[in-house]
Specification:
Blueprint: H1 2-24, H2 30-38, E1 49-56, E2 59-64, E3 72-75, E4 79-80, H3 83-91, E5 100-102, E6 122-128, E7 143-151, E8 158-163, E9 169-173, H4 176-180, H5 184-187, E10 202-207, E11 211-218, E12 221-226, E13 230-231, H6 234-245, E14 254-256, E15 272-277, E16 282-291, E17 294-299, E18 305-309, H7 311-316, E19 339-345, E20 350-356, E21 360-365, E22 369-370, H8 373-384, E23 390-393, E24 409-415, E25 421-430, E26 436-441, E27 447-451, H9 456-461, H10 463-466, E28 479-486, E29 489-495, E30 506-510, E31 514-515, H11 518-530, E32 535-538, E33 554-561, E34 567-568, E35 571-572, E36 585-595, E37 605-609, E38 615-618, H12 620-625, E39 645-650, E40 653-659, E41 665-669, E42 673-674, H13 679-689, E43 694-697, E44 713-719, E45 722-732, E46 735-740, E47 746-750, H14 751-766
Amino acid sequence: MKFKTTIILLIIAGIGAAYIFLYDKKQYRTDVWVQRQQMVLPDYKPGQINKIEMKKGDTTIVLESSDGATWRMLEPLKLRADKAEVEEILSQFEFLRKIGSIEESETANFSLKEYGLETPSIVINLWLKKGTMIGGTAGNVTKYVVNVGDKLAAGQDTVYITAGDDNNVSVVNAKILEKIDKDINDLRSKWAFEFDKHSVERVKIESSVNGSVVCSKTEQLWWLTQPLSDRADSERIKDILDELKNLKIAKEDFVSDREEDIINYGLDKPVFTISIGTTDDVQTIHLGHSLDEKIYAKLDGESSIFFVHDIMLRDLDLELNDLRDKQLLRFDAIGTYGIEKIDLKSADTALVMEKTEQYDWMIKSPKLILADRDTVREFVEKIKDLQIQQYVDDSGINYEKYGLADSPLEVSVFRRIGEGETVKFLIGNADENGGLCYVRRDGEDAVYSVPTENFYDIAKAGYLAFRDKLVMEFPKEYAQKLVVNRDGNTIICEQAEGSTMRMPKWNMISPVNMPAELDSVNQVVWNLSFLLANKIVTLSAENIGDYGLDNPLLSASVTYEEYGAAAHNNEVISDKADLVKPKELITKTLLIGNKIEPDKDKTNYYAKVDGQDIIFQVGWTDVRDYSIELVTRTLFNFDSINAKSIRIKHPEKNLFFQKNDEHMWQMVEPEIKLLSGNLADRIISSMKLLMAESIVQYSNENLSEYGFDNPQFSVTISFDDGEASLLVGKEAGNDYYVTGTDTNFVYLMNKNKIDELIEASVVREIK
């Protein structure tokens, strides 16, 4: 019956609405007017509301905003409100449309009870801000009142409401109930903390186990202020603030709102307390007992007791040292860009390095010299990344124990950014194992330890470590003469007549006069010009004999034209006479001394430049290059096609081959027969390709010393204009002494090469 009556009333209401439309449409555009008639609260704006009262049964919830940005619950509890939830409620009335309406004045036997509105299920009072304009004018309306009654009928998704001061009933979509029917837990804030991270100036962490730690922010950096003064780990503090700001409480995790319950949950004597001080206030959370991977918690100023996950405790239950800055040095966000100067000072030395546009890094003191830029860059990167391993001593009174008392090594790094800044720290002793060293920041008391790797030895060495590692700088393209002393021999090479920078030519003039091997000479000259020391051993040795440099293993000298000479072996490179200057020749000599580790084959060597005091350490591969032969190691140079005969002498058999009238190779001794295949050609080819390992003697003197008076094996190839002979003498380790008629030098040749030749020529015939 109720449903039928309602339908009739809705029809009557529609007729009434038509009348109003005809009467009032002149005040608005037709479309605007129609829309207003459809709205429950046509002039309502959510931003005009600063107080909400919601009544449901015996429960009344009062919410209020004093600044329009934040909301608080005043009743039944004093709590921070969930702004999103509140705004969702307020937004429901802005566009709330009528599906239909029932006017009290036009309905016979009108009764609010019939619509469930005599005792509404929900009553909402919405107070307007003081001075709010309604419909463009200042009125007497101070609040909106919305009463929610029954649903239209079972299964119908509509509900009766009244809005305003009259009893006119509107029918609206029942989905509004899902948005406004909220309880205390729905409306309370789910965020444990609400703050601006950038406004936080103080963090206090109190632990029943680890005591109290206080951190304060000064000029965007965090500092420990209690229980000691030290630089804090700013990134760790930021992580803590992020975790606290994102700490959200699930609706079901609120367990009590009774202040007296704090004892039951261990919050009267919390195990952990965190306080955050902002520019406006201080927010504090207490953590009590644990249960099923959750911890009871409570905020100061609120009665709510709730759960948080125990991972929070694991992340925040930190010891003092956990919050200290692990980075020894702090550059700003730009990093090391702009670093222009590095100073290393001790009691008796001062090293000053500056960056220049022309040379990158220069050592300005104790003497002006190029710095090794790679070493400087690696050093800067290393100290920039130094991580504190141990917090050794905070007292500031035991510096002598750590080598930080009397004139410790001071390292200063200056960067010209803006007004410029200098970062300084002091280096003391290394620990017993040498893996860590003691340091402290300039102006601070605490002593720390940091890794020594790629840092400590370099810093202590100072000038020796940072100077340019180029041992002997000279312009290789202007080299005129090369002298190598080794194994009791002096080998001298000079540029040959007609040599130019584009087409160089070299002659050996001692111990023999003959064309030099261009690639070999260039290899030695280039090695000398690019030679880098592995490290600098000492600036000045009291006795160079300790390094084997009084009687060097070998020496290599290069003579070159001074930079800027406009003539090269009398080659004028300009037709302007004033650009031609006389050549000035300069000689530099490298001395190679003892092995660093005598028991090893491939080890480094001591070295120095003759006339200079600095002793270097150079690599085995570099030294090896100075032992290469500077003339060809090829024994023979003949035209294979002109060979006429081959004579082979071997202890087991002598062989003689020659070409017959048909130019076919045949054996003559020990028997006459045609040779099968291309045996003779292979022998000749092998002879021509023979290359020795090294030259033992640059003459054919004292040949019997090497076994050539009674050779083990010989091959002689005859031509119309002469012959080429190979003599194989005594064994020398894995080599044979060999000589040939084309050079008359004594060589060392690998046994395998000779054995291959014997196999190809003799053994095959013996078999």
